[in-house]
From TrEMBL, chain A:
<dbReference type="InterPro" id="IPR017777">
    <property type="entry name" value="ABC_urea-bd_UrtA"/>
</dbReference>
<dbReference type="InterPro" id="IPR028082">
    <property type="entry name" value="Peripla_BP_I"/>
</dbReference>
<protein>
    <submittedName>
        <fullName>Amino acid/amide ABC transporter substrate-binding protein, HAAT family</fullName>
    </submittedName>
</protein>
<dbReference type="Pfam" id="PF13433">
    <property type="entry name" value="Peripla_BP_5"/>
</dbReference>
From TrEMBL, chain B:
<dbReference type="GO" id="GO:0005886">
    <property type="term" value="C:plasma membrane"/>
</dbReference>
<keyword id="KW-0029">Amino-acid transport</keyword>
<feature type="transmembrane region" description="Helical">
    <location>
        <begin position="307"/>
        <end position="327"/>
    </location>
</feature>
<dbReference type="InterPro" id="IPR052157">
    <property type="entry name" value="BCAA_transport_permease"/>
</dbReference>
<feature type="transmembrane region" description="Helical">
    <location>
        <begin position="474"/>
        <end position="498"/>
    </location>
</feature>
<protein>
    <submittedName>
        <fullName>Amino acid/amide ABC transporter membrane protein 1, HAAT family</fullName>
    </submittedName>
</protein>
<dbReference type="GO" id="GO:0022857">
    <property type="term" value="F:transmembrane transporter activity"/>
</dbReference>
<keyword id="KW-1133">Transmembrane helix</keyword>
<feature type="signal peptide">
    <location>
        <begin position="1"/>
        <end position="27"/>
    </location>
</feature>
Amino acid sequence: MFSGGLNNFRRGIGAGRILGALAIAGLMAGTATRALAADDTIKVGVLHSLSGTMAISETTLKDVMLMLIDEQNKKGGLLGKKLEPVVVDPASDWPLFAEKARQLISQDKVAAVFGCWTSSSRKSVLPVFEELDSILFYPVQYEGEESSRNVFYTGAAPNQQAIPAVDYLMNEEGVKRWVLEGTDYVYPRTTNKILQAYLQSKGVKPEDIIVNYTPFGFSDWQTEVSKIKSFGASGAKTAVVSTINGDANVPFYKELANQGVKAEDTPVVAFSVGEEELAGLDTGPLVGHLAAWNYFESVDTPENKAFIDEWHKFIKNDKRTTNDPMEAAYIGFNMWVKAVEKAGTTNQDAVIDAMVGVTVPNLTGGYATMMPNHHLTKPVLIGEIQDNGQFDVVWQTKGEVVGDAWSDYLPDSKNLISDWRKPMSCGNFNVATGKCGGKGS
Amino acid sequence: MTPITRIVLLLGLVLVLGGRLFSPAQAATDLAPLVAALGQGGYDQTEQAVNAITATGDSRAAPVIQALGDGDLYARKSDKSVVIARRKGSDLALTDPITGADLGTAKSSELEKVRVNNKLRRVVRSAIGTLTLMSPDRNTRLSAANAVFQARDADALEILDTAIAKETDAQVRDAMENARAAAILNSQHPEAEKIEAVQRIAALGNDDALKVLNAVQSSAQGDLRTAAAKAIAGIQRDLAFWNAGQNVLYGLSLGSVLLLAAIGLAITFGVMGVINMAHGEMVMLGAYTTYVVQEAIRTSAPGLFDYSLAIALPLAFIVAGAIGLVIERTIIRWLYGRPLETLLATWGLSLILQQAVRSIFGPNNRQVGAPAWMSGAFDVDHLTITYSRLWILVFALAVFVLLNVLLRATSFGLQMRAVTQNRRMAASMGIRTPWVDAFTFALGSGVAGIAGVALSQIDNVSPNLGQSYIIDSFMVVVFGGVGNLWGTLVGALSLGVLNKFLEPYAGAVLAKILVLVLIILFIQKRPRGLFALKGRAVEQ
């Protein structure tokens, strides 16, 4: 049977081809579950990674979109037509996002696209949406410094998450020294730049702030955590502001627990850690560490309860959690439905114009309004991690905060505003020079 | 005795006895309104209530406060009474916070949790410290002393003095003295006493001491300030030295993780020459095996949880090894000698395995718990060593030794070496080379599987687990020298230490880049790595 290696090598050529094909098949696995076109439906694109590194976060959003579309269809659809989801898998590959977006818009002729998670993927599809004049709903908190006519940002801008969280620590916990710990890419870098400028404007000395970046998927946090510990030994109250993203969070929190960094002494406030991320962790040693979001699953309102019940029923697993980007997707979808009803058509230009001013209830008992800069009004909630993996809201803003596309704390953007209503119709209007376009003051 | 005196005496007796008999009940009624106040309102009210309870100094209040800190204290919605509730099945079992009497069970909807935030947790910690300083249990007293140290509360001085006078255990008394020194620095005591306290705390020489001294330095004047500054400078000098030691430790620990991840590859790539891009996925499968084992234990035999890793080890070896065997028999064996195609095929395979796991277990992280003996940390002088890291280091070395024994001292190891050194000669000697290939590959994969068990303790258990290790693993094997386990050992540990020494100065991102650049330069100089194989095998 097995007559030694060399003979097998020659026989193996055919098998090698088959394998190559298999490998390609593996790449394509899970791509494009495209349904047949039908005239009496409105197509909705869902552009979330179902494979690769970001699948961990984005798969859930795909499911939420399917649930919302399903629900809308049960209510009789939209403009008398059924909604039809078109799901594609950009496989956590940023250039592929652009290709898939192009496919959704030009081939499938979707009325709007709900998708993206990382800023890199959003930046990748942005030119496609502007070129083909379509609509993207982006449901994740991000670094700001962007406003496009074709994009509606339903997640938080930095002033709706990072700045209130820092305010909370400064005012309620008396924090004097800051460690800004982040993953090395555009969101943490921009957020930290804004936070540094903000903290210094509040009188924090530059030597009381350290900024540290780690690569994606970083897993050996020993040095970083012990650095945090010794920075915290200065006597003044120290806090960590974490913009660590994705997979790196679990080992980070494990190391915090192991080295005994307690929330009572050195709280960590995170902007990318929600209920989903905590699901993979024993939260016992992490009780009291913080997260800032615009929604928590533990928020006790009838709307939220109904949403969670619906979600459990749809996903057929009542252990699945809900989180902030899910609420953002929920708000975005409802806003789009309302705007289409208001415009009476799915024509993108009409819908884009109808979107501004649309108000829908959020899940925390308030309302979200689409502002002229294509950002939302949102309440800001600070939650402490509990031992059951949920957050307990310890503080929240009095009312809703208006999302600010261009940060007031960065010299490049402090004079910029965005207003997509006519006649201004400009995403980066410079109030100092009175001209639309260009950065700088 | 006149009747009157008799009555007076009797009355006195009743009073005394009554006082004796009923004093606990009376104290209980004293404590009751204070405890009830815990469940009345917001954080500020709860904090005031805790402070009021601490002021009584009543040690029976400690469990109540502890329950508050643990989040087990609830207010009943019906009558606003405060109870301790712990989960019992789907309901909550209630106990009276003061007497500990059983109050039956209740649905969670009938109760409202007394909410706690970080500020309140700090108050709770110092309250428990103060209340349990006189506890009969030594360890409780020790942690109480440490909690009081953290709180630096001048009000605790009085009780500390009493506790120190009564304390017999030297270590506990030492901790109490430290706590006292920290409290003195926060009090109105004379400066001479404070300087003495500074010296006492300076002798601790750790981060906690720095925290206290820095606070003193920033607020004090004159001699006290100089004393604190001097102490801080001394501690920092010491710590700089210890930091180097800590870096070596971190480096060894990172090195042990690299070793674990790479040692399976040292066999499949190093010994067999197969570029196996799916190696990381074998590690991932091992981690998922651990998850499955723990889930099974959680549902059927919770008592075995501390042994879950020991149970998972052989299973992970078998699962990953079996899959490795199948991969070798169906794919790799057709591709021997064609590295480019092997690379592409195994890379495709790694994607297939990832997506398969994603479909079966879902894309989210799975929770793998740490057994009690693997959580926490201990101090050796000024070095903090976490148990999980220590055990992984020990485990990695054990795996290394075992593999070496297997290669050097068993007939399978001999056959394996014979096949890799001269396949045709080995075949002529009657060795069934295809099977040796298959089992060597299975061994490498199985070892990757058990590495996954260990890595599940420190990393995410997600479908992407393997990806983050594959590049590092190849780096280690190439650096250490292909075909040599010792090279892998030395390579992994030295890369780990190098990385950890660069990290504090260059940051994690730059450190990684620098290490990569250094390896490339090193390979230019010594193309065969640290420990080059010599002899004819190399020439093939």
